[in-house]
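Why this split exists: single-chain examples teach little about how molecules sit against one another. For that reason, every record in the complexes split bundles all components of an assembly together and asks for one structure covering all of them. Below is a record exactly as it appears in the raw files.
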Amino acid sequence: MLVAAGLTFIAAMLSKEGAVTALAVFPLIGWTFFQKSFSSSLKSSAWAIISVALFFFCVAWC
Amino acid sequence: MAKKRKQDRIKPISQVAEPDISGMGGLSEPVIALLLALFGFVLYANTLGHGYVLDDDLTISLNANVQRGISGIANIFSQPYRDNCFGGCLYRPLTLSCFAVEWAIAPNSPFIGHLMNVAWYSATVALFYITLRKLIPYSNSILLCAVVVLFMAHPIHTEVVANIKSRDEILSLFFYNPQFIPVCEMV
């Protein structure tokens, strides 16, 4: 499921780069709605960070 | 005695009855999503006969890579969104690839662009409902449908659906929506 989430996130960013703002939204969901610590929420969003890194790699390569 | 009464009131989770989430005449979730998508398609079907407007020409009919059709997709992935970085060096290759495929099927035809816009929007609406259902599993179906219909029929989305170039926003939301399911499962 993580791989699928990462791939669809990359697809969203390749469609319109504005989707990159979700990088901030995902950890905030855990922190705000599930009362998790910010660091654990950030760790849970590692797949999104990797996706954004891959997207920026594509942009730099282009 | 009072403590015993309190313990009696607390039932194990296995004995707690699932809340009633029906209210749509016993329709299954996929059928509801399909009906919502159909409603979205009918709602914007009047745009199918429209032509290219606003940025459509710049992005589609005057874009050399899109006009090459499928053979232009490699260039689309290695070049910015617009020639000479007009309007900023943007990078939206997936959207342009869609336009290239459509150009290969029917060159210079705004009909297929509008058709695909409405189809993608309908699919996005259905996915939006499914995502909401996953995130709020015990909510009433009628309430969820009302939320989705309000989102779908809101006039603020008219420009996005009626303008072929705005496929980027529809596709982005389509792929963005299901992200919330694994996020809420993990945290």
